[in-house]
## 1
Amino acid sequence: MAFERIFGIQKIGAEKQAKSQSTGMTLTKKIITTKNAPRHNAPFSQGVVLDTTLYVSGVIGMDKDTMKLVDGDFSAEVRQTLRNLGAILQAANSSYEKVVKVTVFLSDLNDFVALNNVYKEFFTKDFPARSAFQVSKLPMNARVEIEAVAATGNMKTICCH
């Protein structure tokens, strides 16, 4: 509740506005929900936009219709995970090109090369910053989970090559 002490929060439909007492700046918080990616009964949102920044919760390679992990090898699971991520990005008026940070959780770091091969099908240039970690267990015994931070709306990429 510290956030509520710092920011006065008013609920506006699915959006919440927070007004900073120190700067007078109004922030808009929007909860992102889409039927095009698996939705859980767990207490978290698929994504949250704060002003123009989208925070995507961890997604796994679950089929939205069966609510089970996709059949196939590790690459198939990564591919479905990234499709689910794409559905949430799209619901928030974002895209793979607007992703600025990705965190990858792997059940086996030896799958890192296979991850990269599929990852490059979705992120083709000007790659986002990324971290990858091996973890002992993921939901539903998934082999990969990915969370992301992305811009929404208009964005210009400037490269320093």
## 2
Amino acid sequence: MTMNNVADLAAKLTLEAFDSFNASFQTITRRAQQRFEAKDWAGGQRDATERLDAYESALDNIAVRLEAALNTQAREHSLWVAAKHRFASLVAHRYDIDRAETFFNSVTRKMLMTVGINRDAEFFYLHPKAPIPQHGEMVYRTYTSASGTISMVRKLLEDFLFNISHENIERDTKLVAQEIDLHLWPIVGGNRTYTADVVKALFFRNKGAYILGRIVVDGRAIPLVIPLANGESGIYADTVLLHEPEASVVFSFAYSYFFVDVERFDALIEFLRSILPHAELAELYTSLGYNRHGKTEFYRELHRFVHVSREQFTIAPGLEGAVMIAFTL
């Protein structure tokens, strides 16, 4: 085969591996609600481990396929430089282009045993790319307070279907609505309506589930987070969070990631940034389980900062550690 043919095959095999990884990721993610309903916390931990290992497993599998199909060419630098351009054309119009490119980078690094960054064979951008327009169904539903806050809250709670009963949905509806009214009174008073956009998928993590949305009034987006728990008598709302610092804590660093069954992760990230404007893109991707792409976004942001500020790393003051070297700017 010519180099172009080999590069084309490498790009196609890599994209197939990425799609297979995505399918596995989503399959594991969809188990979360069943685990929550059954209080199968041990099963949830196994799922978390399995999903975390899925990326490395996908890399191992594609490495075997590439070596079987391309022999020694699979580890040639020139092949991956050419494959990068072929891969770029294959994913150019995909909404998950960023994560696909991160996966491609991981494959090239594995095959070439790259240390540092190889810009010829890897995707690297100093500036953020324009998002792919979203078509079709949105990731959220919109509710209005025209019939009252209680009616709105009851509807949004009932739209999340479970195979087990609520402990007391009437009580939860009233308590959540009361907190929303108290929070919004200084903003909207008693005579104005507003809307609430609520993500269609639940956010599962450990023993909890979260309803996540935003209240939109006067062009302002106010976080709306309702943590749910599965108690002895059924599902109940634990509280309602309406301040950005409170919502940020939910998405701040944690040892476990959310399980969210959505296809358009890019649209979900955009939604999250509307209520968490100070959250880093890397932090949000990582919190949703895409920790490898989270690392990509973190490095890009760090590189942009250093490039713009022209600052340089220096060794941090203090005693030298025995395990690591600490740097500062």
## 3
Amino acid sequence: MIQGEGISRLVDVSVACRYLAAQCQVKSGNWTEAMEMLGDSNPFAGSSNSGSKIPNSDGGIKVEASMCYLRGLLMLRLNRADRAKECLLEALALDVKCYEAFELLVGGEMMGIDEEWALIEGLAYREQAQEQAEFVKLMYTTRLKKFKHHAEIDTARKKLMEEYNLADNPDVMFGHADSLYAEYRWADCFAITSRILDLEAVHPSTLPLHLACMTALPHLHSRLFLLAHELVAHEPDSPSSWYAVGLWYLAVKRYGEAKKYFSSHLPQLFIGMEHIQLSNMQLAESHLAASVALCDSDPILFNELGTVAYENRKYDEALKHFSNAVSRAKEVRGSQSMWATLYVNQAHAFRKMGQLLEAKEGYMRVLEIEPRHTIAIASLGITHHLLFELEDAIARYHESLWQLMLLVYSIVRFKLILMSPSTQSPG
């Protein structure tokens, strides 16, 4: 990365290095810097080596397509949904094997039914995927919404099951179950969802469909009751668990109790948290707002609202939410260590607002709870630095580096233990 007379940075001469560097910036949370490295648009568009008709010579995914996908992901993080969609469509047009772009477009509900169909019909499968062209198109077809093109979707699924021997593939089976449910064939749908969950205990797309079938079939209500209890016992933080409880009350016509569970703030909260993980801040904010309308006392909810505001660089609003979360956390019984994340987030917001003494106090409070909290140690070093307390800053920087080295050593040591002949099973 040295730059001088006659020497260029790798990111300036290698597209692959530029893409890798942008990924590093994304992992570090430096979205603006990553976008500056990638550019606001595809710089290779229109060149002789770019276009949907040109396959990748090594058979992998084109770096150009991967860069377009990453650009689209960054656009979502920066709340530019329309541009994100354009970038993701460009990524898929450049390389049909860029499944991440397809998953984000279809799984993220970024397109309508007709738009989805037009997309998969217009992709250059033959030019880009060669021998796998038909397979890729069939897999994409089975993922589409089931309200139109029933015959084409059924044909695609049957080909995958019969010609590609994927009859027991959970994703292919889910497509079949989804179609059956849309046709009100609940018993047939339940048989398939049961088979999927036997093959793969955790298949997030299948469980809600499985529960809905049990609700629609009276003879399965007792099993729904037992399953709901099991889900709540093992996964109390999962929206599906409380959805199952609400469905059971609905099935036995106890509508008041059903409404209570369907109206719980938790499903909206968890959906909002998932959208934060997907960097879709607009949808996250919408679900969190719906959650806070149902419950205005959950500190975790206010922490997530603060996270959205922080990621949108609205630091004053973030500080308000984080402070609200901290004050409500004090009312919750339990160990203070549960709330270290709330305190460190509040301190981050103080630092961004220039309230350095408050930030310093916040990081110190975290370290009273968790003395080895690496993020708090490093952030405290930054705060000392900004306050021109240089000796304290250097000490904290060294401490955070030492904690990081210990973590790396532990990981390497663990891998060596796993690789040791003494830990291997007899041949």
## 4
Amino acid sequence: MEQPKVYNKEEELFLHIGNKNFKSIEKIEINFEFDFSAIIKKINIKNNEIYYKVNCASLIFNRMVDFSDKKHNNKIVFYNELKFDNSNFNEIAYFVNISFEKNANFSNTLFNKRTYFNNIVFNCIVYFRSISIYQIEFGNIIIKENFNLSIMNEKENDKVLIFKNIKFENEKSNLNIFNIDMKINKFYLNNTIINGIVNIKNMEVETVDFKGSIINGGVVNPVKFKVHNFANRESALFLKNEAYARNNIIDALEYKAKEIELHKKELLKNKKDYKKWGDIFSIYLSSFYSNNGLNWVKSLRRTILITIIFFSIFYLPDILHLNYIINKLYYKDYLYRFAEYFIPTNYDHLIEYLKNSNVCVFIKICGIIVYFSGKIAFWYGSVQTVQAFRKFSKKE
């Protein structure tokens, strides 16, 4: 395999640049800070407009890369193809204020340090296929056609993928994000009005953040998109609404449960009044009974179990008259009384209990509290079970 030629100084690189119709600096290793504005000046490019093909494939950058015209802060325009594939960035890299008018190819490239693409116009098909990343950020970019990005890291690390302030040229503009059997630590899609198409496929993400993004006439298609945590409630709400819009009830219910849990955390952090305490208690109960409406079997089990516990406590005898109660009033008809307990308008057992002169007043008061608490718990659990079952039926 051909070894890359090593350049330690900028002056050495200038001698390697290709002919006037096809600029090439491929298959080299660069050990100095790469400043693209110096190359623009050296080869006398007017108005930062480049009309010929540029080949920067198979490069190794061991120092910082600044791919911009930072001196004049003017936009660089590539009217022809740009090849940056099979390269290796071992230090921080900046691609700033650039317009790509024809194919741009960054495939099979290793971005081993932080990489920034800011103020970029992609008026063409863009390829970031099978790249390896550490942290890569796309900010203030415009997508006209297809933006294709897939990640294939050889090793697990804290990979971060950031999209901020993305603009879609039209409803056919595509942002395609694929991941191949790897887990991304953080994925951001922030402050973006989605009027194009976003396809997310085969991705497992530890934490996602969709804060500030809304769907406005566009489409988001997550396929095999596994999310462990949400950075905020807004992110769970974003995916929930997207799932409902696609009639994906299964994912929508899961995202709704996450949204409720995050809402609970927000309430716990903030200053609380009676209403907020009520909301927190309601969320805790819903989570305890049915995982916020996701598990009707759990809700049914807990409803029956809690009802049995409350009824059994109510049914406990006054310990001062244990023999009398066991023989005369209580345990001989436990199952019958338990069945009566489920009837909301039947209070015969309670009335008989209150008439019993062998039970002291304090025990009677406690019994009344337990009796009605059990009834409330049963009917609350019943509602939770029915709601969760209806959602389960919609899943099916």
